[in-house]
TrEMBL record:
<keyword id="KW-0560">Oxidoreductase</keyword>
<dbReference type="InterPro" id="IPR007803">
    <property type="entry name" value="Asp/Arg/Pro-Hydrxlase"/>
</dbReference>
<protein>
    <submittedName>
        <fullName>Aspartyl/asparaginy/proline hydroxylase domain-containing protein</fullName>
    </submittedName>
</protein>
<dbReference type="GO" id="GO:0051213">
    <property type="term" value="F:dioxygenase activity"/>
</dbReference>
<dbReference type="InterPro" id="IPR027443">
    <property type="entry name" value="IPNS-like_sf"/>
</dbReference>
<dbReference type="Pfam" id="PF05118">
    <property type="entry name" value="Asp_Arg_Hydrox"/>
</dbReference>
<dbReference type="GO" id="GO:0016020">
    <property type="term" value="C:membrane"/>
</dbReference>
<feature type="domain" description="Aspartyl/asparaginy/proline hydroxylase">
    <location>
        <begin position="41"/>
        <end position="174"/>
    </location>
</feature>
<comment type="similarity">
    <text>Belongs to the aspartyl/asparaginyl beta-hydroxylase family.</text>
</comment>
<dbReference type="InterPro" id="IPR051821">
    <property type="entry name" value="Asp/Asn_beta-hydroxylase"/>
</dbReference>
<keyword id="KW-0223">Dioxygenase</keyword>
Length: 183
């Protein structure tokens, strides 16, 4: 599936990279990327532990300034720059990230965040600025409410799972719902 021409024209940097897909099947990814995704998934307990440490450092979290919803980020890499204070808190995770050569390439478009979206919240539809990168989403502590906790990328939907990676093309418009609705 490709984004419409008008959507592609909205991108800051748009390159003809062949067939695009909102959510990528791992079989389409190179072996080194698949191995790095597996390395992330194999280290779930350590990643969970580092995320818990991050929660204890409220002063290092930032409210997302681009969107109106309540969404918080703990940036480890922001626009290609490692954030020293956050990296000290999540030192084991940072060591792992440094080993993942295929996933982190020095690039102004490169980011690594721990994100926190409260229950009953959502992130409105938005998109990345370029189609020259793919984005990896990794579930840490995900509500089991698959009906109400999901991401829509283009017209494809997925649910996170604890300790699992999903690769998306964020040049497609996407939105996130955190689950646990009240009636």
């Amino acid at each position: 599936m490709r984004a419409s021409v008008s959507e592609q024209e909205e991108l800051f940097l748009n390159m003809d990279l062949g067939e695009a897909s909102p959510i990528w099947d791992r079989a389409r990814l190179s072996t080194d990327i698949r191995e790095d995704l597996a390395e992330l998934e194999d280290n779930y307990d350590m990643i969970l532990d580092n995320c818990q440490k991050a929660l204890n450092c409220a002063y290092l979290w930032k409210r997302n300034e681009e969107l109106t919803s309540t969404w918080f980020v703990f940036p480890l890499i922001n626009q290609g720059v490692w954030q020293e204070a956050q990296c000290r808190v999540c030192s084991d995770l940072v060591k792992l990230l440094h080993k993942l050569d295929s996933l982190l390439v020095d690039c102004v478009f490169g980011n690594v965040f721990i994100s926190m979206l409260p229950a009953n919240a959502s992130i409105s539809e938005h998109r990345g600025m370029t189609n020259v990168r793919l984005r990896c989403h990794y579930g840490v502590e995900v509500p089991k409410d698959t009906e109400n906790c999901f991401m829509m990328v283009g017209d494809e939907k997925f649910n996170w799972e604890d300790g699992r990676c999903v690769v998306i093309d964020d040049s497609f418009k996407y939105r996130i719902t955190s689950g646990v609705t009240t009636q």
